[in-house]
Amino acid sequence: MSRVGKKFILVPEGVEVNIQDNHLNIKGPKGFLELDYDFCLKVEKQENMIFVLRCNPKDRARQTKALWGLTRNLINNIILGVSQGFEKKLEIQGVGYRANVQDKKLVLELGFSHAVEYSIPDGIEIKVEKNIISVSGIDKQEVGQVAAEIRFLRPPEPYKGKGIRYVDEYVRRKVGKKATTEGSK
To answer: Superfamily for 3-83?
Structure first.
């Protein structure tokens, strides 16, 4: 039984929820998002709470139970996104590594012979302060995907730690050749 699916979702003030057939429209102060959910589930709104229910509570299908919890979390993420928004922070480490935003592009100098340009998708806002890149938006999946794509341009390497990493990410460092040759003398 899904423990996540049983929980109700609290709708904050200023967020408007419309349910039609298997389609959900959610509008809030930060923007508008929509979601199509599976036909084996029902979404009901009572006052300022949303409940996700299975159409047939006796249905023991594994997929139905998995979709129940997933749908509840997707709706919760949409409500959080349109009311508060999501943000991921990346840190650039390395001598001469820098970033700036020009028009709708993030321009990164990452030690290559050329500058790397990343096109910023619609609905995503990127800010750069010193060596911190902030990726923000209302869609949690899209914010995470953009942050992962930027990190992929120059992932942190284990010897000197240079590259792009999440602010709270720990990069395990390797000792390298110098320490292994000293021990053999």
So the answer is: Ribosomal protein L6 (3.90.930.12)
